[in-house]
Amino acid sequence: MLDTFIEAGKLKKLPRMGWLLRGVPHPESVAEHCFRVALITLFLADELKKGGVSINTERALKIALLHDLAEAKITDLPLEAQNYVDKKKAERKAMIDILGAEKVEYFELFREYEEEKSLEGRLVKFADKLEMILQAWEYEKAGIKGLDEFWNALEYLEQNEFHKYFGELIEELKELKGY
Amino acid sequence: MLDTFIEAGKLKKLPRMGWLLRGVPHPESVAEHCFRVALITLFLADELKKGGVSINTERALKIALLHDLAEAKITDLPLEAQNYVDKKKAERKAMIDILGAEKVEYFELFREYEEEKSLEGRLVKFADKLEMILQAWEYEKAGIKGLDEFWNALEYLEQNEFHKYFGELIEELKELKGY
Amino acid sequence: MLDTFIEAGKLKKLPRMGWLLRGVPHPESVAEHCFRVALITLFLADELKKGGVSINTERALKIALLHDLAEAKITDLPLEAQNYVDKKKAERKAMIDILGAEKVEYFELFREYEEEKSLEGRLVKFADKLEMILQAWEYEKAGIKGLDEFWNALEYLEQNEFHKYFGELIEELKELKGY
Amino acid sequence: MLDTFIEAGKLKKLPRMGWLLRGVPHPESVAEHCFRVALITLFLADELKKGGVSINTERALKIALLHDLAEAKITDLPLEAQNYVDKKKAERKAMIDILGAEKVEYFELFREYEEEKSLEGRLVKFADKLEMILQAWEYEKAGIKGLDEFWNALEYLEQNEFHKYFGELIEELKELKGY
Amino acid sequence: MLDTFIEAGKLKKLPRMGWLLRGVPHPESVAEHCFRVALITLFLADELKKGGVSINTERALKIALLHDLAEAKITDLPLEAQNYVDKKKAERKAMIDILGAEKVEYFELFREYEEEKSLEGRLVKFADKLEMILQAWEYEKAGIKGLDEFWNALEYLEQNEFHKYFGELIEELKELKGY
Amino acid sequence: MLDTFIEAGKLKKLPRMGWLLRGVPHPESVAEHCFRVALITLFLADELKKGGVSINTERALKIALLHDLAEAKITDLPLEAQNYVDKKKAERKAMIDILGAEKVEYFELFREYEEEKSLEGRLVKFADKLEMILQAWEYEKAGIKGLDEFWNALEYLEQNEFHKYFGELIEELKELKGY
C-alpha cells in the first residue's frame, strides 16, 4: 500500500499540461484537480440521491480519487500528445502496475470512468469536465487569456444525462463567463 | 453548490504552512494534501473492511474530503499560530459559512474528524498524520533538511487504535527513514 | 536579538494572502511589503517635517519596520479569515512573544500603529494602504485582473488626515488607474 | 516557419520530467537542456575536427537543436512513462507534423540522432548524456539528493566511441562527483 | 571545456530581465531565449541558402549559441541598467575570461554578433529581435500586459537587410499582434 | 515621490543574485533582504544607544532603507559581474536618477553607506553582512549546500569596530553553523 501512496504523491508534482502549455504560470497539479473533482462528485452524488436517483456514492468517490492515478506513471498528456500516443492503452497498463494484481476492484472502478460504463463513472466524468471549466474561469478571473477552448466543454455538460439534475448549476457556471 | 466548489478552489492556492515556514521551496497546497489523505483513507478503509471491521467507507471518504475545507476561509494556520488563535472555534464557524445552513450532514462529518468522534473520523485523522509523515520523507529524499519534528507523529500512529491493523505499513514508513 | 532576526526572516517566506487568494502568481511576501511601507514612510515623514509638521521620523520608521512583525507567528491572515479569528488579540500576544518582555518600547510602537494612537502610527497606516494600492496597480499593469476592491482603500486615503499634505500624491495614484 | 518557432517555444514551458519527478524544485525546461546540449556539441565537434576527425559541425549543431523538438507535441516523457507509450513512434510522427512535409532534411537529421546513424547524431547523443550528468551534479551541488541513478550514464560515456577523444573531460566530470 | 559548460549552465538560472521587471511571473531564462534564437537562425540561414544567398550556416549557428554567453558573468542587464554600465566593454572582457585565451575563434564569432560585422552576425541579431517579439506575443496571448514597447523592434526587423527575404514571416508576426 | 515608490517596487522582483547563481530555488528578493537589514539596524542602533554610543538611529534606518535602492536600476550584480562593471560608479549615477536632483540629503545618506563614512553607514554595512550570513544559514538549514563562502563574512564581522558591542550576537551566529 505504501508504494501506491508514494505513486499518488507524484500527482502533486505533475502539472496539468493544458494550463501549462497555454502559459498559465505555476498551474495546478493533477492532485489539486483530483481533489476538487472528488469534492464535486461528493456534492453531486448526494444531490442525485436526494432526488431519488439510485447512485452508489461510495463507488463514485472511489472512482473520482482513482480516475487520474495512472498519470503518476504516464503524466498528464496534453490533448495534442494524445494524437501521437495511445493514452487509453497506456493508462490501463499503468493502472494495473500501480494497483497491483490483487486490486482488481480498483481497476474495475477506473474502467467505469474510462469507458463511462456506470452511472458513477459517468458522474465523475461530468464532475471532471465541470471542474476543468471552473478552473478555466478562475484563471481568467485572475487575468489569464487564451482559455476559450476549455469552455467548449460546456456543450458536453449541457448535452449530458446529468443536465436535467444540474441544469441550474450549469447555468450559474455560464453566467460566470457572461454567457 | 458552485460557491462551495469555488471555496474549495482556494485550497489549491493555500500552501501547507508547516513546509513553507521550514523553507521548502514551492511546498504542496492544502488541496494536494487532502487528495492523498482521501486516497489513503480509501485504501485503509477497504483494508479494515476486509479485516472484518465495521466501517462506513463512504462516510470516511466524505470526511477526508471535507476535513480541511475550513482552511479556504482561515488558511492552513501553522502550529505556532495556533498558540494565538482559537483554531477549532474558527474552523467550526468557517465550515458553517462554507457549507451553508442546510448542509448539516456535512458539518457533522467535519465534527467527526475534529473531535475524533467516530471510527471514520479517527481513521481520517490517522490518514492525515500518515500522509504528513510520508510527505516529510519525500521532501527529505529530495534533499530538504530540518523536518525531523514531523516524524514525531510516528508515535501518534504507533499508539493509535489502528496500529493493530496497519502495523506493517507503519513499519515500512519507519524503514524509509531508517529507523 | 538573533531570535528576533530569525523570526523576522519568516516574513520573507510568508505570502501576502490577499494577492495569493486572488490568483496572483508568486505574490509578494510580507517582508517585501514592509520594506516599501518603510521606504514610503521615510519619504512621507520627511515631507511632513519640511511642511512644518512635528513628526518623529525615527518613531515612524520603527513602527513601519515592526508593524507586521507579528505575522511571523500568525501569518498574514486574509480579510476573510479575520471574520473567524481575533486578529488584533493574536497580534498583540504574538508581538509580546517575539519581542520578549524587556522590549516594552517596541511593543508600544506596535500599539501606536494598531490603534492609530499617534501621528507616527497613523502615518504608517496611511503608508501601508498607499503601498497596497500601488502594488495592486503594479499587478494590474502586468495583466492581473480582479483587484478592484483594493482600490476602495483610495477612499481611506482621501478622507485621511494626511490627505491635505499628500493630495497630489493621491491624485497621481488615481491617475495611474485612470480615475 | 513561424509555426515551427511557436512550437519550439513550448520547450521553454515543458519541464524535464526526470528532475521534476525526483522533487527538484523548479527544474530546468527542455529548451534549457537543448541549449547546453547544442553548446556542448559545438565545443566537442570543433575539438574532434582539430583532432583530425572528419565531422560535419553544421550537421551536428542542427541535430542538437532539433533532437528534442518533438517534445513540443509529446512532452518530455519520463523513463517510467516510456514503459507504457511507444515514445520513438510518437516522436517520429510528431516531428513530421512539426516540420511539415517539405522539411525532409530536418527529419533526416532527427533520425540520425534517434537511431545514432551518423557520427554527428552519435556525438549529440553523447553530448545529451554528458549534459544530463552535469546538470545532476549542479543540482546535487545545491543540495538536491536522490539523483544517483543519473550518474549511471557515466558508463555510457566511458564505453562510448568518443571516449578516446574526451577521456579527460569525462574524468573531470567524475572528479566533480568524487569518483 | 567543462568549465565553459558549467558557465553556460548559469544561463539556465539567469532570468531575462526585461520580462522580469515588467512583472512577468517566472519569466524565461537566458538559456531558453538562446535556444530558440539558435533554432530560428537554423531555419533562416537555410532559407537564405535556398534563396541563393552565400551564408555560412555553421558560423551563424555558432554565433547564435555564443551570443549571450557573457551573461553567465555579467547577467542579462536590462536596458535601464545599460545607462549606468558599459555593457559592451563588460561583455567583451567576460567572453575572454569564459572562453579562455586559446579560443580566439569563438571570441571572433561573438564579435561578429556584437558589431554586426558579418552576414552571419547580423542574421543572429535579426533572429534575436524576432525571438524577443515572438516571446512578447506569447506572454500577451496568456494575458500579460504592458509589453508594447517590445513590439517597437518590429521596425528594426522591417528596416533590416533581411526584410526582403523574410517579409512574409514579419507580416505573419504582425498579424499575430493584430497590426 | 510616486516614481521613487515605483522604482522601489522593482526591488521586490529583483532576485539576490548570489543565491540565484548557487542554485537556491526561488531566492529572496532585494526588498526582502533590505527589510531585514533595516530591522537589524533598528535593534543594533538602539542597543548601541543603550550602551552609551552616540548614534543617530534615524540616519541609520534611512541608510538601511536606501542602501540598495540603486539596484532598481542596475539590478543586484553578483560578485563575479563586479569584475566587469564599475558597480560603485553605476550605483552613484543610478541613485542620483532615482532620487532626483533635490534629494541631496538621501544621496548623502547613500554615500555614508557606500564609503562607510559615518558610524551609521558602517553600522548598516555590518547589519548587511550579518543579514547575509543569517540568510545563508537559513538556506543551509533547509538543505541548500554550497554556501560556505558566505560564511567568510564572519571574519568581517569579527574584525569590525562593532564587534566589541555585538560579540555575543556574532558568537550565537557562529554556534548556529557549528563553529
Structure description:
The structure is a homohexamer of 179-residue chains. With 179 residues, chain A is mainly alpha-helical. Chain A has a single domain (2-177), classed as Hypothetical protein af1432 (Orthogonal Bundle), CATH 1.10.3210.10. Chain A is built from 10 helices and no strands. Chain A has helices at 2-13, 17-21, 30-50, 57-66, 71-74, 87-99, 104-114, 119-141, 153-158, 163-177. In chain A, α3 (30-50) runs antiparallel to α4 (57-66), α6 (87-99) packs antiparallel against α7 (104-114) and α7 (104-114) packs across α8 (119-141). The longest helix of chain A is centred in the last third of the chain and has 23 residues, at 119-141. The first copy, chain A, is globular and about 50 Å long. Chain A starts with a helix and ends with a helix. The mean pLDDT of chain A is 96. Chains in contact: A-B, A-C, A-D, A-E, B-C, B-D, B-F, C-E, C-F, D-E, D-F, E-F. Chains A, B, C, D, E, F: GO terms for molecular function: 5'-deoxynucleotidase activity; metal ion binding. Chains A, B, C, D, E, F: Its cofactor is Mn(2+); Co(2+). Chains A, B, C, D, E, F: One of its GO terms (cellular component) is cytoplasm. Chains A, B, C, D, E, F: This is 5'-deoxynucleotidase. Chains A, B, C, D, E, F: Its EC number is 3.1.3.89.
